[in-house]
Design a protein that fits this description.
- It is a single chain.
- The protein is α/β, with parallel strands linked by helices.
- It has a domain of about 170 residues: Anaerobic Ribonucleotide-triphosphate Reductase Large Chain.
- Helix content is about 45%, strand content about 15%.
- The two termini are about 40 Å apart.
């Protein structure tokens, strides 16, 4: 339980520093809903999720009100549909996505994640059907999110899947051209995806997870920034090692808050508690930015030389604080750098301080990767695949989760603005090489072998 001192500090965070529980995510296994008939599968899915989630939103609101800690998003993660509905055709996969979207709306769920596949070593019939269905499924739904894992440190990189995802992203953008390619904002390509991520668009329930579980995601970039500012104002002589300790202590407090809320929701729903994911996930709001933390640590802007070092320190300190606070820290837990969702990162991209190349370098030490990156609409599928391949390589070689959420905005060029609305924000379209230089490499296909560090037995 929280101590009196922690409660007082938490109240201050709530009043002044944008602390919230960003998401409570209910994980639901769909493996017992399997059927060779898509209609029967949908009926079973609807019945099971409705039973488990009937009071989910109300309980989250009740617990949040009781403790004075807002739960911003209520989400559901499900077993990867390519596995749970492996016999479905592409047309049936689209029908499943629409049914999930309707169900999420009925239950007042913000997003439902898990319309995805795990293809790091190859494709099943269900994998191919789901990926073929993805562009239309994402265009027809508003709450369904998809994650496709194409690489692991153990398996290497499935370059056939990488190439396919380049083409799929292009199609998804074209089908949502009237919304600046919004369909792509709900699609993320992963390496080493964790099984218990509560944050969208990567959330899904892994095959080793319980039948139902509550995972919580707490985000506090504003809290971290204010803690650094206070510490430096009180003692201007603090060095980076001492400031890292400030970040670690702050992450400890935030994680304790998140686990408290998650455990209370789990208790009321009689569902096991899973993990607390302490990821510094920003929003487009002022005072809720990861980019501002870089300024508090002495950089003029994220993207300036030194940014990768700052991000490495920040990510490490957040993880250390979270792990000390809870025995059940999971998901991604670190710092997100989504371009459109962070006001200061978006501004750095607009001013030219942050390029695609610098962003890629920074992803080697952050929690996820190239997140919510808007690209010119004429970026080719092969170029998209090349960018994805680079990001997957960072994850595979470093034995960490990395991801790419790329949005080629139809009809727009580098330097123009793309708007996605709500928490997804808006971003300046970044320049991407589009001279066909990646075509020959992507056309080779096959699987890049696992690196030597994969042999750990």
């Amino acid at each position: 339980m929280l101590t009196e001192r922690e409660i007082i500090a938490t109240l201050d965070m709530l009043r002044n520093e944008n602390l919230d529980v960003r998401t409570v995510t209910l994980g639901v296994s769909l493996f017992d809903c399997a059927s060779d008939d898509a209609g029967r599968f949908i009926d079973r899915v609807r019945a099971k999720i409705s039973r488990l989630a009937a009071n989910f939103v109300d309980v989250c609101d009740e617990v949040g009100l009781r403790y004075g800690i807002p739960v911003v998003n209520k989400r559901i993660s499900i077993s990867p549909i390519a596995v749970a509905a492996c016999a479905a055709s592409p047309e049936e996969m689209i029908a499943i996505a629409v049914a999930l979207d309707d169900l999420a709306a009925k239950l007042r769920i913000d997003f439902i994640g898990g319309f995805g596949a795990l293809v790091e070593k190859g494709f099943t019939q269900g994998d191919r059907a789901l990926i073929e269905a993805l562009p239309e499924a994402l265009a027809k739904t508003g709450r369904v999110c998809s994650s496709i894992n194409v690489a692991t440190t153990r398996a290497g990189i499935n370059m056939d899947a990488v190439a396919l995802m380049g083409r799929t992203i292009k199609q998804a953008a074209e089908l949502t051209a009237d919304r600046d390619g919004l369909g792509c904002a709900k699609l993320v390509v992963f390496a080493n995806i964790p099984q218990d991520v509560p944050f969208m668009a990567g959330a899904y329930l892994g095959v080793g997870e319980p039948d139902a579980v509550i995972n919580v995601g707490v985000s506090g970039p504003g809290v971290v920034k204010k803690a650094i500012d206070r510490a430096r104002a009180a003692n201007p002589g603090l060095d980076l090692g001492q400031l890292s300790e400030v970040i670690k202590r702050t992450a400890f407090k935030v994680t304790r808050v998140g686990e408290l809320i998650g455990r209370q929701v789990a208790k009321k729903l009689d569902i096991p508690f899973g993990v607390a994911d302490l990821s510094l996930a920003p929003t487009p709001n002022v005072g809720d930015s990861v980019g501002e933390i870089f300024q508090s640590l002495g950089l003029k802007s994220i993207g300036n030389p030194g940014s990768t070092a700052v991000l490495a320190m920040l990510n490490d300190a957040v993880k250390k604080g979270g792990i000390f606070a809870s025995s059940h820290v999971g998901g991604l837990s670190g710092a997100f750098i989504p371009v459109s969702e962070d006001l200061h990162i978006a501004e750095a991209a607009r001013k030219g301080h942050l390029s695609l190349e610098k962003l890629e370098a920074m992803t080697s030490v952050c929690s996820v990767g190239l997140d919510m990156v808007a690209l010119p609409g004429d970026t080719s599928a092969a170029t998209l695949a090349g960018i994805i391949a680079d990001e997957m390589a960072i994850g595979v070689i470093n034995s960490k989760a990395t991801a790419a959420r790329l949005i080629p905005v139809p009809g727009k060029k580098a330097g123009e603005m793309a708007s996605f609305g709500g928490l997804l924000g808006e971003a300046t379209i970044m320049n991407a090489p589009n001279d066909g230089g990646s075509d020959g490499f992507i056309a080779l296909g096959g699987r890049i072998p696992a690196p030597v560090q994969s042999f750990k037995n």
